[in-house]
Every structure is written in C-alpha cells, then in structure tokens.
Q: What sequence folds into this?
C-alpha cells in the first residue's frame, strides 16, 4: 500500500510547520498579557506577563469588544443557519428532483461563484443606504445569507448520501415534498449540514470587506470592524490591541479545538468533490 | 394498451397521469388530493431553489449590473441619488491615473509573492501529511488553525512582529547578524511582509486540499515507480505532482482570484494611516484603491469603474488559464 511510515525527518519538519502555524496565535496571547512599554523593548517578550486581565478589560470596554462579539455571534449564527437551511433545500432539489431547467439553473448557481464581491459593493452600499440599513446588522446578514458554495456542497453530498428509494418510498406513502424534506432529507443530510454550518460560521465570522464598508465603529460593529478601529489607533496601546485580537480569535479557536477534525474532513471532502 | 386505459386517456387530464393513482374518478376529496399531489411534485423543486435565486437577484445580480451603470456616472458617497452622466470619463481617468497602475502593479507582485510560495509549501506539506503518521489528526488541525484567524487579527499581530524597532522578525534577523529591515516602508520589504500574512493564513488550507487529492492517487502507481527504483523524491516529482495537476490548477485559479481581491492585509498593515497602502502607496492593492476612491475620497462612480476594471482583469486571467489548460476541460 501507499502510506509509507513517516521517518524522523518528517516529524521534525511537521513540528516546525505546526510551530509556525501556532506561533503568531500564541504570541498574540503573550503580547496581550504584557504592557505597552514592555512591547516597546528589545528583545520582545517570549513568555506571559501579568497584564492580561487589565488589557482584556480595556479592550472590552473602550473598544466595545463585548458588543462587537455579541453582534458577530448574531451575524455568523444567522448566516450559518440560513445558509445551511437554504442550501439543503436547493441542494436536495438539484440532487434528487427532476424539474425543467434544473441543469441551466445549477450552472447559473456555480457561475455566481466567479463574481468578485468588489463588483457589487458600490450599489450594495447605495441599496442599504437607501433602506437606511447602514450600521444595522441586517446590512451584513442579508447579502450573505445564501451562497453558491453551500448549494453546491449540499448537492454533491446528497447525490450520494440520499438513496432515491427512500424518497420514492416516502412518496408512495403519499408524503408531500415538505414531509419528505423533514423526515427523509434532513436526517440524511445532517452530517453535511453540520460541516457546512461550521465552515460558513468561520467564513461569516471572519468576513471583512463588506462589514468594514457597511458598518462603522460607532453603530453596531462586528469584531472585524472593531479590530479595524483598534488597528487605526483609536486605542493606541499595542497590548490592548492584541487583547482585542485575542478576543476576536478565541471563539473560533474554541470551535476548532472541538470540531477541528470535522472541519478538516469537510474541507478535504469539498476539495475532492468540488 | 388495454380497453380500460383507452377509455381513460381522452379524459383531458393529460397523458402523464400515473396509472397507480387511478383516483381521478373517485370522490371529490380524492380528486383534489391527487391534484394537490401533482402540483406539489411539479412546483416544489422551484420553491426549494427559489430562495437562492431571490437573494442572488437582490444582492448579487442587481448590484452587478448597477455597478456598470454607476461607473458611467459621477456619484458621490454623500449624495448617492445625485448621479450625473459622464460617459466613459471614469474609465479614461483611470487610464491616466498613476495610482491605478501602481495599485495594479502591486496587486500583481503581492499576488505572485504570496501565491507561488504558498502553493509550493502547501504541496510539500501535503506530501508529508500523506505519510502514515502518529498524531496525523493533530497535525492537520494545527496547520489549519491560521484559517480560523481573521484577516484583521492576523494582520494586527504581524504588524507587531514586523515592527521596525522592536519587532520579533528584526530581532531574530539581528540575532543572526543581519541588519534590521523597515518592513512598513521599503517597497519590496513591505510587499513581502503583506504576502507573509497571506501565506501564513492559507498554506494549511491548500495543503489539505492537496492532501485530499493525493489520497485519491492509486497506490499501484507508487509501487511500480518504486520497483523502477525511483526514490521518494522522484516519486513525488513523477507520480504525485502529475496526478495532482487538475487540483494544482484549481488552487492556482482560486488563489489568483483571492490575490486580485486582497484588501484587509494592506489596509491594516498600514497602521493608522488610512487606505493609502503605505506612505508611498507601496503596498496599495486594487481592492484597497477601490475602497479609498469610494469611501475615503467619496467617488462612488470611480470606485465602480475600478471594480469593472478588476473584473475585466479577472476575465483576461480566466481566458489565459483556459488557453493554458487546453481543451481537456471536463471535470
């Protein structure tokens, strides 16, 4: 078989990669636990100091990180839930139902992935300004509530994971489409829905360009917008900036700690099939 | 065809009617139910795909077309309703705009500096992860963690690490006898620093995509290569890389699209100095220039023209990629 056992060299190199991947995150925590004056000294600190509580507190209150975190949870949660729900509906239709025009419609879905977000940002801004949505969370939620990737991901999964016999059996029993959806499709799709939900949550949490355009610091910022404010020096203290960065990253790191394997599996699955 | 069906079929219900139901002649409730059933079968697929298309029409297609329209007008952010027709002037101004060409040049160099090493490293990393490893799940999750970090958080950390006077990178350089580098001001140095952030965030992600493709390569290919006396490295070069060609192509396209849209890293790498991309615009990308024109200088019409220019550039790249790849395009 293929899988050769790794030699010592492989472990050494992988350990170096791991260190490189994790170091900036660990160092964020180290810098967040120090003082501004200590960060402005050479050599830079390599171990934790005693200022973490103070810095987190300043970031939380002065930079509005508490509100920002709550807003981001709302945005990422809604977007993930919406994407998973609508993608499962559309993915099921494209995978298992016959209807006129399904092929060109699917091609259209995939084609929308090629449109760069910059191309719509000006009118989108004019639209939300027209609706007086600037600084409101729906300005960030609604434009990203569905996505071609999700539809495609669910379709690819359901093509194989949902046996047609199950759908037909339910139909023969006289089940309506909604019942089929509820009792057959959702249970079969659950693993893919979970993975898509996590991937979408990560993407929505980290979304940057549009939230920075649509939300300002004073209204209802997401974490990313609040961090932009920190970086622009509204809070001049570097250690506080790092505390803010830590607050913005920690929730996702926890998600990774718990669901890392599933997320890795989801990305690899999407890679093979996409 | 039996007599019975011959009697049934002209009854105006249509030829598609399933014989199994047969209830058309029954009580009115049954008729209604079977009609509703057919109606459901026929229209629910459209209802299931409708949300995607409704949202896309409102927040994707309409803005896309409207950008083209706005690019032909003078529009200010302060008064989005007051549009003055200017024809192609936004585009001709771009053509004469040194900052536009500067941003385009920077986008290309930063794109190359970030994409090429990123994908090369990812390929090697995936090769290592493909060995039979103890703790392979740990390594996979560990190299993916930067993906969980946002542009904003990552850039802020790297700004500190790349600090001129007290940054860790310069400290390490001086420890091994090199001179400190002004990472935010030198053109090449700053572009390299911005690229480092991109490489750090995306290498693990691409490695996993390569790894998935590697695991689909049939083992016999390696066995016969080993029989022919190929070393591990030769196997990598002559078996792995050719088998991965479609995946490598795919990641090149995705990374190129990502590189043309680079925005957050150059915005925040500039510290508090706004959207100029450095004191001398040395790392201002097209995405950042669009933002500066639209939301700092308030010229939405010109921002739209930049957006369309970016789109055209992407189309050219896509066309070139298609030519490169030839006609074997059935995936």
A:
């Amino acid at each position: 078989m293929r899988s050769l056992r790794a030699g010592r060299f492989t472990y050494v190199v992988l350990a170096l990669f791991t260190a490189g991947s994790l170091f900036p995150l660990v160092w964020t925590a180290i810098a967040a636990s120090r003082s501004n004056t200590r960060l402005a000294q050479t050599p830079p600190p390599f171990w934790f100091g005693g200022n973490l509580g103070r810095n987190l507190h300043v970031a939380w209150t002065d930079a509005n990180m508490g509100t920002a975190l709550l807003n981001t949870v709302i945005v990422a949660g809604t977007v993930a839930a919406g994407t998973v729900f609508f993608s499962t509906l559309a993915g099921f239709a494209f995978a298992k139902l016959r209807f006129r025009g399904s092929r060109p419609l699917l091609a259209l879905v995939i084609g929308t992935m090629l449109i760069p977000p910059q191309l719509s940002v000006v009118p989108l801004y004019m639209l939300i300004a027209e609706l007086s949505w600037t600084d409101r969370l729906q300005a960030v939620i609604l434009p990203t509530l569905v996505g071609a990737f999700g539809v495609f991901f669910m379709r690819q999964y359901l093509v194989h994971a949902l046996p047609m016999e199950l759908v037909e059996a339910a139909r023969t029993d006289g089940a309506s489409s909604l019942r089929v959806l509820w009792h057959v499709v959702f249970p079969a799709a659950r693993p893919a829905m979970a993975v898509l939900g996590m991937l979408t949550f990560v993407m929505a949490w980290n979304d940057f360009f549009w939230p920075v355009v649509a939300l300002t610091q004073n209204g209802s910022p997401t974490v990313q917008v609040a961090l932009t404010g920190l970086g622009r020096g509204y809070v001049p203290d570097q250690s506080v900036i790092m505390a803010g960065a830590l607050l913005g990253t920690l929730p996702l790191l926890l998600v990774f700690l718990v669901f890392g394997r599933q997320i890795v599996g989801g990305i690899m699955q999407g890679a093979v099939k996409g | 065809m039996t007599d019975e069906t011959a009697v049934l079929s002209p009854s105006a219900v249509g030829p598609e009617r399933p014989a199994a139901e047969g209830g058309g002649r029954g009580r009115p409730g049954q008729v209604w139910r079977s009609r509703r059933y057919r109606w459901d079968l026929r229209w629910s697929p459209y209802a299931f795909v409708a949300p995607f298309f409704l949202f896309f029409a409102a927040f994707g297609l309409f803005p896309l077309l409207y950008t083209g329209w706005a690019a032909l007008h003078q529009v200010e952010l302060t008064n989005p309703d007051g549009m003055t027709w200017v024809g192609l002037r936004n585009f001709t101004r771009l053509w004469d705009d040194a900052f536009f060409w500067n941003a385009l040049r920077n986008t290309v160099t930063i794109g190359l500096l970030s994409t090429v090493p990123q994908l090369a490293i990812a390929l090697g990393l995936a090769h290592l992860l493909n060995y039979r490893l103890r703790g392979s799940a740990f390594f996979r999750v560990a190299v993916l963690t930067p993906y969980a970090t946002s542009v904003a958080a990552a850039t802020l950390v790297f700004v500190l690490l790349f600090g001129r006077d007290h940054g860790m990178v310069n400290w390490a350089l001086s420890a091994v006898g090199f001179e400190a580098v002004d990472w935010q001001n030198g053109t090449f140095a700053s572009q390299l620093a911005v690229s480092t952030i991109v490489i750090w965030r995306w290498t693990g992600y691409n490695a996993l995509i390569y790894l998935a493709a590697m695991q689909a390569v049939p083992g016999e290919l390696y066995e016969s290569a080993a029989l022919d006396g190929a070393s591990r490295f030769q196997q990598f070069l002559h078996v792995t890389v050719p088998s991965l060609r479609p995946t490598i192509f795919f990641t090149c396209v995705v990374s190129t699209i990502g590189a043309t849209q680079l925005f957050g890293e150059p915005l925040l790498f500039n510290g508090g100095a706004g959207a100029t991309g450095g004191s001398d615009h040395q790392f201002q990308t097209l995405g950042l220039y669009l933002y500066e024109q639209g939301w700092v200088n308030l010229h939405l019409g010109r921002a739209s023209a930049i957006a369309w220019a970016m789109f055209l550039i992407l189309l050219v790249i896509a066309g070139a990629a298609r030519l490169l790849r030839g006609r074997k395009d059935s995936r």
